[in-house]
Amino acid sequence: MDTKAVFAALYSVCEENATFFSAGGKVSQADSAKRLVESMKLIQEHARSLEPVISGFAAIYHHFDFDPLIPANGYRSLVKVVRCCLLHIIHKGRYIAANRRSIFFRAAHNAGEMEAYCSALCQLRALLYLAQRMLHDNSHGNLFFQDESGLSESFIREYASMHKGCFYGRCLGFQFTPAIRPCLQTIAIGLVAFGENYKRHQSGIGVAASSFFTSGKYAIDPELRGTEFERITQNLDVHFWKTFWNITETEVLSSLASMTSTQVKVNRALSVPPVAFDLPLAANHRASATIAPPSAHIGIAPIQMRLISYDLREGQDSETLLSMSRSEGGAISLSLGLKTKRLPSSPFLLIHFHGGGFVAQTSKSHEPYLKSWSQDLGVPILSVDYSLAPEAPFPRALEECFYAYCWALRNHHLLGWTGEKVCLAGDSAGGNLCVTTCMRAAAFGVRMPDGVVAAYPATLLTAYASPSRLLTLMDPLLPLSVLSRCLSAYAGSEPQTEKQVERVSTLSLVKRDTALFLRDFRQGASNWIHSLLDSNRETDPNISRDLSSVAIPPPAAEEGIELQHPREFPLGFEPLRSDQFAEMKLQSSPVFKDPFCSPLLAPDSMLKGLPPIHIVACALDPMLDDSVMFAKRLRSVNQPVTLCVVDDLPHGFLSLSQLSKETKEAANVCVERIRAVFLQDTPPEPRKHPPASCHAPHVAVPPPKKNKENQTF
């Protein structure tokens, strides 16, 4: 259905149901009937305000796409989420109309459903108002508001007070593909049960065991789950999230995951001694650069890695490599079996940096899909277990990833690799580290990787607002309050961080690496977007007129009334407010603007010469705009870059790639791009991202085209 048809269907079904339940009925259902009538009328009120806004955005959001073949940006995503909410309401309304006369009709249950979606629609209406403000306040073509004050500060303030529980109860994951919603519900139930038992037990497995017995009430009471989810995300510190996200690494769960995942011949945890070594310069092999072991914050220590290989290859069972192996308390990780055949070294190596918000997880959490990749690609994979914040903030993780990359180049014979082609791959925080590792390699003058595959990378760690970041209000995996705590920990501004002196001197620790940035800093990080988009502003004089038809200025204050903060929404409208006010303290650290932390802010001189970068983003990810703007930025300096956007999946889909057909297909997109790097081939044509598609129960949506099965090298 097109936009007009969607709204027409919504008005019709709401009006029909409101008329029916207004006429009266069973006395026992009078209260529920009243709730249904009120919800239907309020939904129509929100819809009448939303209809012209949705139509306006549909006319202009193409101006913010990376290119016409990849229609994706935060404005599109917001519209898609609103449309999906409307379709769910229509579906529910039609169900009520078809069953309201039945003796089995549960009026109270259906009233609760409609109230939940009515609340969600109200909050989405507020987000669209903020998106209209961004169109008004942002520079032309930019998806980010280029300051941590102003509109960015306003969004953080509104997030702290706006009601979010409706998105974590009955409406949880409504915007995503139906195949992934049961998994999200399981995660949400586990989270709130885990939060209830947090700090009552000493060990993570103790909390997990207690949570299992208390999770039932959250499964049967979605309102309670939503309220508790909101409380946890707004109030618990980064150490809680670190503990919760690491639950999958407990011996019981990791053993279960290992048994159900692809079986590989080599799965060896390594502890590499922190020894300095020389590496030839890329421009002059007679000269070399000294690669010193990481030392920031926690001192010099061994670097932790994991070698995964589907086949046993030359060097992988050498005495030298086995001497670096560390025990994980589980089964033997190098499976020689009955005289396992040893294959020659592979011409390809994949180096992987895991995600986890810079604060949680290790290669163990990402093992299932890495094993599958090793089989599909037929290459060894070296995954780096870099040190985590808040104990080891920036730049420690970057130092370790760069050291591991250089160590692999120097010791390729131990990894079952000939030393020919190498690709970096990572998701989320790991995607950030892939890009910044390349930037550091350029600063040292050593060999660049042959390519980078970054899945939903974080390229801008500042608190700048963008339309896709508005989705943090409803995202079950990446709420803004959680994201802010992770980034603050990485910047070294978490109060629990022990080494106060080293946090203050963070920039001095990367003085050599940031020389180019400091040299160009006078130009200002805020100027980067202007040079990128000046040509577009000149070539299309009609764009500004188109945008002004949708953009709105800040609303005027009521005469005679003084407010502590300026009003963000038009008179007559106010979003639902939370009973649990979040304490949002986003500290404006200079670390966030360091290009080795936020590569989107890097000057042109640091981006030129990077290897081909292939970005795989999610249409409904709060960090979508990071990917779109970084791809634009690379293209503006003539760097090879591709962008592929997958539909209807959440941030972190790689960790869910074993759970559904959709997530597996999205993971295969990453595999295709890694294969293209090794073969120096053009990646497959990116799948188009239809802005109108959404997975509502009554809407038939064709599944994405299945990728052709590729053979290993």
TrEMBL record:
Catalysed reaction(s)? Answer: 2-(9Z-octadecenoyl)-glycerol + H2O = glycerol + (9Z)-octadecenoate + H(+); 1,2-di-(9Z-octadecenoyl)-glycerol + H2O = 2-(9Z-octadecenoyl)-glycerol + (9Z)-octadecenoate + H(+); Hydrolyzes glycerol monoesters of long-chain fatty acids; all-trans-retinyl hexadecanoate + H2O = all-trans-retinol + hexadecanoate + H(+)
Q: Which part of the chain is the Hormone-sensitive lipase N-terminal domain?
A: 7-317
Say which domain of life the source belongs to.
Eukaryota
Give a GO molecular function annotation for the protein: monoacylglycerol lipase activity
What GO terms in the biological process aspect are recorded for it?
cholesterol metabolic process; triglyceride catabolic process
Compartments it resides in: Cell membrane; Cytoplasm, Cytosol; Lipid droplet; Membrane, Caveola
Pathway(s) the chain acts in: Glycerolipid metabolism; triacylglycerol degradation; Lipid metabolism
Query: InterPro entries of this UniProt entry?
Result: AB_hydrolase_3 (IPR013094), AB_hydrolase_fold (IPR029058), HSL_N (IPR010468), Lipase_GDXG_HIS_AS (IPR002168), Lipase_GDXG_put_SER_AS (IPR033140)
Q: Which residues form the Alpha/beta hydrolase fold-3 domain?
A: 350-497, 578-654
Q: Which Gene3D superfamilies match?
A: alpha/beta hydrolase (3.40.50.1820)
- Keywords of the record: Cell membrane, Cholesterol metabolism, Cytoplasm, Hydrolase, Lipid degradation, Lipid droplet, Lipid metabolism, Membrane, Phosphoprotein, Steroid metabolism, Sterol metabolism
Q: What stretches pass through the bilayer?
A: none
Record: active site: 428
Read off the Pfam families from this record: Abhydrolase_3 (PF07859), HSL_N (PF06350)
Q: Does the keyword Kinase apply?
A: no
What are the GO cellular component annotations?
caveola; cytosol; lipid droplet
Q: What is its EC number?
A: 3.1.1.23, 3.1.1.79
Q: Where is this region: Disordered?
A: 681-713
Describe the protein's quaternary organization and the partners it interacts with.
Monomer and homodimer. Interacts with CAVIN1 in the adipocyte cytoplasm. Interacts with PLIN5.
Q: Which family does it belong to?
A: Belongs to the 'GDXG' lipolytic enzyme family.
Q: What is this protein called?
A: Hormone-sensitive lipase
The species this protein belongs to is Oryzias latipes
Tell me the classification of the organism that encodes this protein: Eukaryota, Metazoa, Chordata, Craniata, Vertebrata
